[in-house]
Amino acid sequence: MHETMNPFLTYLLEASFCLVVWYGVYGLLFRRATHLGFNRFFLLGATVLSVGLPLIHVSWPAAFAGDVAAPMFLERVSAQAQRLWLPEVQISATRTGLPLPSPAALGWGIYLAGMLGSAAFLVYRTAKVLACIRRGRQTQATDYRVVQLADHLPTFSFFRYLCLAPAPDLDEASQRALIAHEEAHIRGLHSWDVLGLNLVKICFWFHPAVYLIERDLRELHEFIADRRTVASQSPTSYARLLAQQALAGAGLSLTHSFHQFHIKQRITMLQKNHVPLAWWKGAAAVAIALTLGVLVSCEQDSTASAEPTAATTIAQMDEEAINQELTRYKEKYGEEIEYFTIPDAKLRELGVALPEATPADKQNIRALFDRLHELDQQNALNQSPSDEVFLVVEEQPAPVGGMEAVTSYLQENLAYPAQARRMGIEGRVFVEFIIEKDGTISNVKSVKGIGAGCDAEAVRVVSEMPNWNPGKQSGQAVKVKMVLPIMFKLDDKTSSLFSHPTRSFLPLSLLPKDQC
């Protein structure tokens, strides 16, 4: 699906979409039908497919991949990366107060709390049922254990346990019907269905469809058990028994009790004649399963061979077409797509985390920038040499006094924003600027930042930086574009808003001026 999204969040969204679609199909086509066995299979299968399909990934060939990044281009970019990037400068500060969680961290915290709460509630309910079973007197039947309940609870079944409550007001025929009903639950393995749904509910505790599926599945269990019971009972007398027990106490959750769910609906279902499943409904279910499989499991295979004309197409693009393509990629991956032209090893060295992109898209982005660079050079032939901005030059620009002077300047002038310290924001800000022919700084901007005032502060200080020795090409001073990474880093100590921390004299680090 979407490459740039957190994988687990992508999974939750895809699985949630499947749950909504499947339950909608069930409600429209099957919910009030009499083919109970199929309905049970449908709900269980829909749940399994919903949580399983997003985990399966099937690739198909890319439509626009191609080998568009030639070795010569990669060599040029690699050389450019070594010349364009300046050494990183780290800015350190002490936190002020407790850091505020980001919206993403807060959202994941709420989700994990919901998971833990759901899991704890499931353990609690299971322990409560097992405690009731342990307190009862047990005897072995043919294929299950009979438990004479000591608690004031209605008769229920739980896996291989049939828990009988005293029922002095029922005659022998009614008691046999009640036991036959619970035996149907035991032999139908209905408790496994409920347990499985509750395990799914731990991950999808927020999703209404999971609760609706569990409700309908438990209702189906009662319909199935009722139908099997009346096979050896009179439907009229059994319906009368259901009506008599309608006001009995509620049973334990996770169990199957004779008194659970709407008695009126159960009586109505008993009176319906069995209608076979219509073929078109089954076909519709299969078609929907295949469609969902394609939507959530199939993805473009960036490694497969693609159209051989891709490189030729990019080579023939004009500047307007290239900018349109780059705009499309920026909408997909963000404004920092130019950094896809930097080799991955250099990005890892700098600690730059870019959105994940397919190799085909990376190749196309590199080819587009390569073509744009060629067009810029062609335009430069028709312009004054002073208008051209170089990325790679024979003699690189250098700050007066070397990088030590730059570090000293930043230590004197750059302040760690109070908002960033308060929110616990840290990370790298990449500041791009041009060294003019006379060594002045121009066109300063943050090309990748962290917000909370850090980007603006970095741009402000770099804009006021002293003049550099300009870069030279063929002995002439030229304009050169540079990138300076600035690392904003908070230490591990948390101070109050009224504390007075002192300056740290670590090399290549800086504490904000307002803490001096």
Automatic annotation (TrEMBL):
Its main location: membrane. Gene3D superfamilies: 3.30.1150.10. Keywords: Cell inner membrane, Cell membrane, Membrane, Protein transport, Transmembrane, Transmembrane helix, Transport. The chain crosses the membrane at residues 12-29, 41-63, 108-127, 278-296. Residues 401-497 form the TonB C-terminal domain. One of its GO terms (molecular function) is energy transducer activity. It is found in: Cell inner membrane. One of its GO terms (cellular component) is outer membrane-bounded periplasmic space. PROSITE patterns: TONB_CTD. It is a single-pass membrane protein. GO terms for biological process: protein transport; siderophore transport; transmembrane transport. Signal peptide: none annotated. It comes from the Bacteria. NCBIfam families: tonB_Cterm (TIGR01352). PANTHER family: PROTEIN TONB, PROTEIN TONB-RELATED. Belongs to the TonB family. This is TonB family C-terminal domain-containing protein.
